[in-house]
Amino acid sequence: MNRLDSRLSLAHFYVAFSAIIVAGFFGLLQTMVRSEMIVLPSYINYYQLLTAHGVLMALVFTTFFIFGFLHACVVKTVGDFSVGTRRTAWIGFYLMLIGTVLGVIMIVIGEATVLYTFYAPLQASPFFYIALALLVIGTYFAGAADIYQYNKWRKANKGQTSPLLAFMAVATLVLWIIATIGVVATVLFQFIPWSLGLVDTINVTLSRSLFWYFGHPLVYFWLLPAYMAWYVMIPKIIGGKIFSDSLARLAFLLFILFSIPVGFHHQLLEPGISHGWKFFQVVLTFAVIIPSLMTAFSLFATFEVRGRNLGAKGLFGWFNKLPWKDVRFFAPFMGMLMFIPAGAGGIINASNQMNQVIHNTIWVTGHFHLTIGTTVALTFFGVSYWLIPYLNGRVLTKRVNGLGIYQTVLWLVGMSIMSLAMHYSGLLGNPRRTQVTNYNGHSVAEGWGAYETAMAVGGTLLLISLILYFVVLIYSAFYAPKGQEEFPIGEVMDAKLKVPSFLENWKVWIGIAVVLILFAYTVPIIDMIQHSPPGSKGFKFW
Amino acid sequence: MHMHKLEKIWITIGIVTLIAFLSTVGIQAFTSDHHKPPSDLTVIDPEKVHETAPFDEPGLKELGDNKYELIIVLQSFGFTPNDIQIPQGAEVTIKVTSIDVVHGFQIPGTNVNMMVTPGHINSMTYTFDETGEFLILCNEYCGTGHHYMSAKLEVI
Questions:
Q1: Cβ neighbours of A428 in B, within 8 Å
Q2: How far are the Cα atoms of A294, A301, B7, B9, B11 from residue B4, in angstroms, in the given order?
């Protein structure tokens, strides 16, 4: 990859890594406050830390990492950016950065203690909402650069199938653009005018529905880049082949279709949305199980075929043949493995009436610390171990590889302890997003304390792991020996199989996505507007 | 598009299981009112809660034959009323609303769990079969005093 595009990707990664180290430190503080080991100084509020942790982890770390990764994948597979395209991508980066800095300032000065979901009618400073809007608008510039580059390739190579990695990058961007329409709409047309005082009140249910229209596909926006690494990079790393190009493309398209018209499963216990529409979206939610099963099959087929080629015998002999001592494989593989319990938990969360048992308990926090915090994070760690030296013209050394495996194990153990404690005490009723939970020594809450101590133990291991990761990355980026690290891109197992052209007919797939969205949302949204109660004024309870 | 035979079998098993699972969830949800997640559609002016029935008189009301209605107003950072006694075996319809921000209404150890958004009334019915001390808590962040927002409920 050329130096200029490498620099673009690296800029994104450096912001992402700064965000995760700060947010990780806040995370540990939260577990210590909650387990009543420490009391925060009076000038820091627990919920302020929690807002910063959520914004920096869920919005800043993920978005910057993903755009750095997508730019690298696109440039690598469909060619260097032109001067104009690269400039567009940089404009995107700076808008995202300005948004991030402004948002962080608002949180630090106590003008936005509204958590990263910013539910109305808690009202933050208008600058906080403007900051969020800048972050999202910045991604549109970045995404435009990647999509433009992909289209340019397709025009120059008419009739040919696009590189799988570029196709997946574009699918991820399509999902992102359709999904962010919801959050952009609520921020621009509801939150900003309301916080500026241009209108007095806000339609709370509508704002929450628009947020969750975005909030659920957001998690797939985090997951799909991890899937890119699993589908395309891992086969190469283990010396195997991609199981099927077409099925990989189909899986990504199905994720676009089934991850968006499903936001109501986050609002199952909410008044103002009828049960029929909730259940309809629950059914659509579960349709993502189909591409998930396809993914699991493809990946394990790749593993098995590779193991057998190396001479593995018996039903599970191939398992031992995998390169367990290679962090580029080990970290993402552990992420995949943890996705099995994470996915099972997700099925419980979305199961209509079963949601009642765990809704807004700390079970949910435990759930997404497995999905995003383990599956996605470990995959991103695994990618950065080779991608950061690659972009800097350096190599992944043996020593870094060893430390990386150690760091992955620490992360796994820490997250397992923390997440298990969260899941279990959530089942006992322990609420999420709560500073302390002794409730004046009420007998019901007494049993939760031990789990909160366990969360702090897990959190401590996680921060140690994160510090190790950070130090190793700095070494890999600036001090490792110069050289050419590999950018692993797998080849397809059966290259003779042609990829059907309908898989790249974006008009059709986006059309189906729009139809599904209109079907799932039109009636309930019209209902929310027509039968809306008097709106809510803003409140600042911090 | 080529699909491996084993993958076809795998996906088919997946889809069949999924349909069976969703049918179970759906049948259970739609055949009994007690299994539906709370989805009350009644609206209320959040600034006139104290003047609007039934929230003008919060508390437990007997509707007859072991049936009760429990009316609770939520605000940052408390429940009104916040010390409630319920007779054992009572079937209680709980109605809640908020006068300010979004709150949660949860009774750990039971399936009582509702979102409470301003402008809407939410409700669900629960039968308290066992005696004991219960805790009502707010499970949605509602400001810096959120962790103080709780109430006592005793089943006697």
A1: 108-109
A2: 11, 10, 5, 9, 11
